[in-house]
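Let us practice reading a record.
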Amino acid sequence: MLPPKFLDVLAGCRASFRCGAARGAGAAFLFALLAAPLEAADRVVVISPNWEGIKVEFGRAFSDWHRARTGRAVFVDWRDMGGTSDDLRFILSEFRQNPEGIGVDLFFGGGIDPYLELERQGLLDRFDPPPAALAGIPPDLAGLPVYDPERRWFGSALSSFGILRNDEVIRRMQLPTPRTWRDLADPRLRGWVGSGDPRNSGATHMVYESILQAYGWEKGWEVILGIGRNIRQFDRSNSAAAKGCALGNTAAAVVVDFYGQVQIAETGSDRMSLVIPDGESVLTADALAILKGAPNLEVARAFVEFVLSEEGQSLWMAPRGHPAGPRKFSIERMSVRPALYAKFAGVTLVKTNPFRDLRPLRYEARLGARRWSPLNALLGAVVIDRSPAERERMRMPWSEAAFDAAVARDWKDPVRRNRLQLEWQAIRSSAVHSPR
């Protein structure tokens, strides 16, 4: 008879394949099947858009931390539907069918906006960590909360968004060097800009939402449409856009900061660079929360406590091979603990101290959360799903007031929502919308 641990891993494989886990899920679960210890262990189910290196390092480190405290290892059962937006859609869909719980303990990563939507719908479980877990973590930064005052979600790391540049391609092709979002709309960059698809990638969504908030609705859409005309292709993920830039397929790409830093570390700072547009890019926490009806509640709470602890936060900052750092993968992300920037100074590859060095956009998180899904649909209809010829002539046909009114009236009803999206898709190039 197979050991219980082996059967647990098989169950995780079956469940993940049933829910359509993407991006190498089969290989990842096969690895887990072969590598997972056969001793009795606790279990926690985590849905996360974070890349594989984060999952491997946090899974291993949390299991070690939990074993040292309780004598029991933990099997972390990772799930991912393809990106933040996909994960959020999956969670909401599952809760509509199973309102008391969906068999998943935690949501980990993807910014703040998805968590504000889950909070609004009452789908997050409050957890008051031990005082030591939050000691030393500021409650807010640049006007944005680092963790929820009601303790329903917690910032696990900090992220910003910028322009990854292949400086070698820019020099060889004699292209302009972009420094702001508006610079990416320069017609001389036609075909040389990379982007993920915001309908799948939460990081990419945050770039376009930041543009709208930095420039205002009308001018923001002028910038977005200009960038859209220059995009070579919309990749499914933000990491794919970053890799495409590193390979020289594009000269610049809109990226979350740590994907850019990973490519610079691999390719060389003499060939690539990353710029965070001053005052135009949001600085946000990458959140973590326990979902309503978590089946492994105590282990889920321990996971949150670990991620917030100095041990967990050191995984972001310490380099690979450092006693406090990751073992197999370099992560290089900004911690929510200010003290770690001094502790790892001269050692960490994270060169930006967000508590000291950045002048971020004062982001309206609840506005971003409220229009997350409808904005993705509008971006798809007006920019992403258009042919290059259509993009050349396209203008934003909706005023912000008309968009907000239509979303408030129609978005919650499935039939009216579908009708609204069909209306967006039917917009002709250069048309101007008259609100109904």
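A brief commentary: DSSP finds 19 helices and 13 strands in the chain.
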